Amino acid sequence: MSLLPTNFETLKRRAKQSIMPLLTPHLLKLRINTYAPYVGAGIRIDHLNLDQGLCVVSMGLNTLNKNIVGTQFGGSLYSMVDPFYMIMLMHQLGSSYVVWDKSSYIEFIAPGNSKVTARLKIPSNEITTIQELAKEGEPVFREYQADIVDDQQKVIATVTKTLYIRLRKYSKSKDQNSRIEISMVRGLRAIFKTVL
User: Which distant-in-sequence residues (6+ apart) come within 8 Å of 106 by Cβ?
Assistant: First the structure.
């Protein structure tokens, strides 16, 4: 019997512990910036700091994302904000918690006639608050708001998102995993197979 599977599992675990924290933000940014719906809409992550709970996303105005009147398409405006609060909370809370989007609302304030940017931030005390609220096993619902601004810093839309958070051991979604992390581990596995 080969020792390769045992060695590979040990190698994978050590790599994940030492390499993944360093690579995760860069690989995640690369993966999202090459995600077909985002490429088509012209959406781009400009800055991503998972540990600090900060993401800055932008979208230029082009022929692929203009609506019928020549301004930013509302669906693309919403898309540029959609996954990031969930991703940041999943990272900061860790695998002991399940995080899902519960509901969303977008309010259009002015037409977007130029490049737009959204700055999404998880407040520094938010993780402690969530952990305190979730410790008895009850679901926690938290609301976050992000303004989408044009190149003159004028607010053109506001997205409000409500997220469901619960300790994994109390959740019906025990098997929820980050597909991004799984695909990065698969990529590392492919690299290690060529080395071994």
Answer: 74, 77, 78, 157, 158, 159, 160
Count CB atoms within 10 A of the CB of residue 196.
9
Model pLDDT for residues 136-195, shown as the tens digit of each residue: 999 999 999 999 999 999 999 999 999 999 999 988 776 666 555 555 555 545 544 554
Alpha carbon 159 to chain centroid, angstroms: 15
Residue 167, by phi and psi: left (phi above 0), alpha (psi -120 to 50) or beta? beta
Mean pLDDT across 62-74:
92
Rg value, the chain, Cα: 19
| Distance set, CA 99 to CA 87, 104, 177 (Å) | 9, 15, 10
